[in-house]
Amino acid sequence: MKRWISVSVLVLVLLLCGLGAPWKLWSQATANYTKINTAPVATTTFTTGTLTAGAYNFEVTALSAAGLESGPSNIVTPIIPNDGKSHTVTLTWTASTGDMTYNVYDQVVAPANPPGALSFTVN
């Protein structure tokens, strides 16, 4: 009986995942992050709205044509200066194979916690 149930669950998971990437069924952005794009991003570049002074964590996820969301990219942490000027951040990433669009997430952090790889430009 146990084998039948586990095979049934496996088949159900594969069907829900489009027989493609079952790990994407449970993927999501890191806890406490907020999606900041209003529609899926079709390019590999995104510019934020105006940000106040402080440190921000950003990460990107990919959306397949079937609407399945990948796990998050690495995190980058630009630090916005407290200089009285308006600043935005432009994020750039490498396209994922087979993924059509992207979601961008942010989180205000203190203190800053900078990792690497995803690049950004403070404008």
Q: What this model shows, in words?
A:
The strands form two sheets. The chain has a four-stranded antiparallel beta sheet, with no helix packed on it. Strands 2-5-7 form a three-stranded antiparallel beta sheet, with no helix packed on it. The protein has one helix and seven strands, in the order H-E-E-E-E-E-E-E. It has one helix at 2-16, and strands spanning 34-35, 45-47, 54-64, 79-80, 89-92, 99-109, 119-122. The protein is of the alpha+beta class and 123 residues long. The protein has one domain. It is elongated.
Summary of the model, kept short:
The protein is an alpha+beta fold. 12% of the residues lie in helices and 30% in strands.
Name a few traits of the molecule.
123 residues, alpha+beta, 4-stranded antiparallel sheet, 1 helix, disordered N terminus
